[in-house]
Write a structure and sequence with these properties.
This protein has 358 residues and is of the alpha/beta class. The chain contains 10 helices and 7 strands. Bound molecules: S-adenosylmethionine (SAM). The site of S-adenosylmethionine has 17 residues, from strand 2. Belongs to the methyltransferase superfamily. Type-7 methyltransferase family. SABATH subfamily.
């Protein structure tokens, strides 16, 4: 991701300079199977190599762990990784040398499991990275799960202006519980002085009813509602479905970090990013709203498809995401709303002698 690259470079440089490990252990949490995990690995290798050249030190060995849920397509991730390595070697050969000496030696392994559980032995990781994953909750609050008898968020799939405040509180409490658990788990796994760089969808607006994710998922909820009206989906199916996602504000994130007492916040910021990942224009105008609608629908379908297929059935997917693309196009004609993305860099507090004994 382009926007957090300078921060990634800074954190990797800081971690290496401060800890000088012979083997630097780095983990990407929620890596998925797309190209971003590969970009991340390449960036860390490049930045570490640059640090070593500048300081005339021998490079450390880099051990990467790419983590995601067990259902993630690790095969395709590692196949892309092998192709990319082959290409890098070929380029190096064409330029008259191998990669040895110019790039730190590195090893990459997959790590299936939820990041809401322990993933590593104590004090073994120097740097955790996670991008676009931590807005996923560990689970829906119990009262909002599909088997619950009463449907508290009727007609919606996420928080909208008609969501009862009690439901909003449940989402908020689940986020606080999950994020605190995540911070505690990682703090046991980080070496003293290790760091984390976390990037996830959030909201800039103080009001949780008008957060940036409300629009994007609200339009998807409207697409489901239209299928209910036409009898393609039972109303009960819609009423019993909620997304296990929450977009926090910077204040909410900061409050949980402070509550944990485990980290110093090096830096926290919010930036905006266009809904359409192929639209890199900066203004408030969308050139081709129809194409942008299709692009946004494709991206969201890639992420949400398993969830929707499981609850509503595969048969609705094509129709649902076509309607969603139209809803997005119409919305973008009126207003170019954007995602709010929070990037936070955290340094684990140095362990006291007493803590190190436990
Ligand atoms: C939108 S993708 C982000 C992929 C990639 N990091 C990127 O920046 O493009 C979110 C990923 O987080 C993963 N994820 C969600 N909850 C998780 C959890 N509890 N543990 C591990 N991975 C999780 C999902 O499976 C998905 O692959």
């Amino acid at each position: 991701m382009v926007e957090n690259r300078p921060m990634l470079e800074k954190v990797v440089t800081d971690v290496y300079a401060a800890l000088c490990p012979r083997t630097m252990v780095v983990a990407d949490l929620g890596c998925s199977s797309g190209p971003n995990a590969l970009h991340f690995v390449s960036d860390v290798i490049r930045v570490t190599g640059d640090c070593c050249r500048r300081s005339c030190r021998d490079p450390p060995e880099l051990q990467f762990f790419l983590n995601d849920m067990p259902g993630n397509d690790f095969n395709s991730l590692f196949q892309s990784f092998a192709r990319r390595n082959k290409m890098a070697m070929a380029v190096a050969r064409n330029h008259g040398g191998g990669t040895a000496g110019s790039r730190p030696p590195h090893y990459v392994v997959g790590l299936p499991g939820s990041f809401y559980t322990r993933l590593f032995p104590g004090r073994t990781v120097h740097f955790f990275h996670s991008s676009y994953s931590l807005m996923w909750l560990s689970q829906l609050p119990t009262e909002l799960q599909s088997n619950s008898k009463i449907h508290l968020n009727e007609g919606n799939i996420y928080i909208t202006t008609t969501t009862p405040p009690s439901v909003v509180r449940m989402y908020q409490e689940q986020f606080q519980k999950d994020f605190l658990l995540f911070l505690k788990l990682r703090s046991r796994e980080l070496v003293s002085g290790g760091q984390m760089l976390l990037t996830f969808l959030g909201r800039k607006n103080y009001s949780v009813f008008h957060g940036d994710l409300n629009h994007v998922y609200g339009l998807l909820g409207q697409a489901v509602q239209s299928l209910v009206v036409e009898g393609m989906v039972e109303k009960e199916r819609l009423d019993s479905f909620n997304l296990p996602i929450y977009g926090p504000s910077i204040a909410e994130v900061t409050a949980v970090v402070k509550q944990s007492k485990l980290y110093d916040i090096n830096h926290i910021q919010l930036f905006e990013s266009n809904w359409d990942p192929y639209d890199d224009s900066e203004g408030d105008f969308v050139g081709d709203t129809v194409q942008s609608g299709i692009n946004v629908a494709k991206c969201l379908r890639a992420v949400m498809e398993p969830l929707f297929a499981r609850h509503f059935g595969e048969y609705i997917l094509d129709e649902l995401f076509e309607r969603y693309a139209l809803n997005v196009a119409k919305h973008l004609e009126r207003e170019k709303t954007k995602y709010s993305v929070i990037v936070v860099s955290l340094r684990s507090k140095r362990w006291s002698v007493d803590q190190l004994r436990t």
